[in-house]
Amino acid sequence: MIEGSGELPPPNRNDLTAADRPALIGPLDTIEVDVFGIPDLGREMQVDASGRIAMPLAGTIDARGKTASELGGLIEAALRARYVRNPQVTVNIKSSVSQVVTIDGQVVEPGLYPVTNQMTLMRVIASAKGLSEFAKQDDVVILRTVGTQRLAGLYNIAAIRRGAYNDPPVYANDVIVVGDSPQRRLFRDFVSVTPLLAAPLIAVLQ
């Protein structure tokens, strides 16, 4: 259901926490890795902003969105590939940056990015190294849960850059999709009637 133009309402406090988030490793989380029998490989480290870790022998591993046990399995596989016999790896999440936003689609580095109090749509896109070469600047959707409602807002990056309307704030657990997506298609008929976005369009998904 299209609500029309306006702004996405901010989430409630309860919407900002996700029950499954602490169990998943994300950018800037601090983890502790122990390799049984090889104390020199054990260490505490911070996941980098792109969701990767680097370990001796194991190399660089994508930890983003993995549970501690899943990451342990990936490290074990990497060590086995380097001729470490029967590695046993334990991973513990020491501190979790639970305030993250997801950006997907036509950006250079899709992924999870930490949210600060001043995070906006343009800043999240900049964190993801910007739009990809052929990204559709008028097809940017922010998905947000507010209470029991799932909402979508359609934004036009070029219009924001022109100052047609404000760069919208982004909150923890928001999902941003750049380019064609099922949520973008909800707006198709409406946008064909009003192609020039003087304000974002808001839709209620449920």
Give a short synopsis of this structure.
This protein is α+β, with helices and mostly antiparallel strands and 206 residues long. The chain has helices spanning 68-81, 121-127, 157-162, 182-185, 188-193; strands at residues 2-5, 30-35, 43-46, 52-55, 59-62, 89-95, 100-105, 111-114, 140-146, 149-155, 175-178, 201-204.
SSE order and pairing:
Elements: E1 2-5, E2 30-35, E3 43-46, E4 52-55, E5 59-62, H1 68-81, E6 89-95, E7 100-105, E8 111-114, H2 121-127, E9 140-146, E10 149-155, H3 157-162, E11 175-178, H4 182-185, H5 188-193, E12 201-204
Task: Give an account of the 3D structure.
- By secondary structure, this protein is an alpha+beta fold.
- It folds into two domains: 2-18 and 99-204, Outer membrane lipoprotein wza fold like, CATH 3.10.560.10; 21-95, wza like fold (2-Layer Sandwich).
- Helices cover 18% and strands 30% of the residues.
- It is built from five helices and twelve strands.
- It has a seven-stranded mixed beta sheet.
- β2 (30-35) and β3 (43-46) form a beta hairpin.
- It is elongated, with a radius of gyration of 20 Å.
- It starts with a strand and ends with a strand.
- The model has no long low-confidence stretch (mean pLDDT 84).
